[in-house]
Structure formats: structure tokens, C-alpha cells
Amino acid sequence: MPSTRDIRRRIKSVKNTAQITKAMQMVAASKMRKAQQAALSGRPYATLMNEVLGEVAAGATDFNHPLMEKREVKKRAVIVVSTDKGLCGGLNSNLMREAVKFDKNTTIFVTAGRKASQFIARTKRQLAAEFTYKDAPMFSEARAISKFAQEMFRKGEVDQVDILFTNFISTLNQKPEVIPFLPVAEIKGVGDGVHGETALTKGTLEFQFEPDIEGVLGALLPHYLNFRVYQILLEAKASEHSSRMVAMKNATDNAKQIIKDLTLEYNKLRQANITKELLEITSAAMAMS
Q: Which of 93, 127, 152, 289 is the most exposed, fewest CB within 10 Å of its CB?
């Protein structure tokens, strides 16, 4: 049975842990609000890009572009967007559970985030490149990832590119999703109002292109892909900070409950020791009399 000194030490240790998790909860909550706002702000532009490119592509029946070329899928690339740090609940484990579903013999992985890189290396899967991105993702970071994937597809190193990330739904709900990225005809949207819809929607308007359709779509497609990756990074960051805030709140609440239980145990043990000492004193007094 632990002594009162041992229980006091445990209570002090748990209190220190609770202070740390509480501080991490407050930091995550602050970052979460900014990340959520950034992700939600980008969704209308993503939807508008989807509609504009869809209308333009609908009038370009004879247009062919290397990024729209459909091929038999013999080799696949998967961009895995994870976090750099842990302590965010089951976010990364749920993401990696989806990653292992891809055939390691026919899949090349591109990672954004240290946790994904470590997982791919640990499971001995083929890693083509690893990228990093900040707490506030920059468009240049997304463009580097998108450009690398486009080059792999153009060169024929892979026949299809998918993106695996954690989509932000709400503060309490984040869901790992896989969306097609290349070829463009297979891409799907990210964000409210776009889930499950093909990005190149059909339109009924008639367009005139200046200088020509190849020039217009040739410029639109890479930018469209770059922004899709950027929006995905925003969604992943919003999911990360939301999950970490909830995880740290649960850890703080659990620490408080442990402190409560240990305090009750300490009081019971202290009361038992006092009762024992009183009995000893009473027994000694009766023996002397």
C-alpha cells in the first residue's frame, strides 16, 4: 500500500502535468481559431475556381492537356498530408490507417509533415519526396508540392496522383479522406458544397478565348492544382489544431479526475493512520493504568 508521502508526490506530479496540458490546450485553441478561419475563408474561392474551370472546360471539347491525360494505372503516387508534431489525439493514426491500404509495391508516397515521413520510412514504403509546411501554410509551399506531383505525372513516372489528408468538418470532427488529384478530369473538390462533386462540372455558356483555348486552360490548370493543394494544407492545419485542443482538454480533465481520486485516497489513508495512532495511545494508557 502506498504511503501518504507517495500519494502526495503523485498528486504534485499530476498537478504539474495538468498545468502543462492546460497551457497546451490554450495555445492550441488560439491557433485553432486562426486555422479554422483560414480554411473556411478559402472554400468560397475553391468553389468559384471549380465553377469557372468547369465552365471553361465544358466549352473545350477538343482541348487536350498533359495533366488531363488518362492512362492505365500501373504506378500511383499518394501525397500524404500529416502533422509535424504529435499530441493531437488519433488524427495521425487514423490517417496512417488509410495510407496502409495502398499497395506498397505499386505506390510512391510524397509526404507533407514529419509524422507521415516517419511512418513511410518505418513501414519501408517508397518515399519520393518529403515537404514541410508552416502553422500558417504559404501558397509557395503548396505550389512546390503540386509542381513536384505534376512533374512526376508529366514524365510518366506515375499514372495517377491522389491526396490523403484529414478534412476539417468541425472542431470535434475531422475525417481522413483520399481525393484524386491527377489527371485533372478525375479531381474532386474540398470544402463545404464541393464534397463528392467532380471539379470539372458541365456548363452551358459559350466562351471566346483570347488568345486561344490552349493558352487560357494551360495557365488555369496549374494554378487550379496549386490552389487545391493550398486549400488541403489549410484543411489539415485546421484539423490538427482542433484535434490537439480537444485532446489536451481531455488530458486536463482526466488529470483533474486523477487528482480528485488521489486526494480522496490520501484522506482515507491519513484518517486510517490517525485512527491507528489513537488506538495505540488508548491501548498504552489502559495498560499503564
A: 289
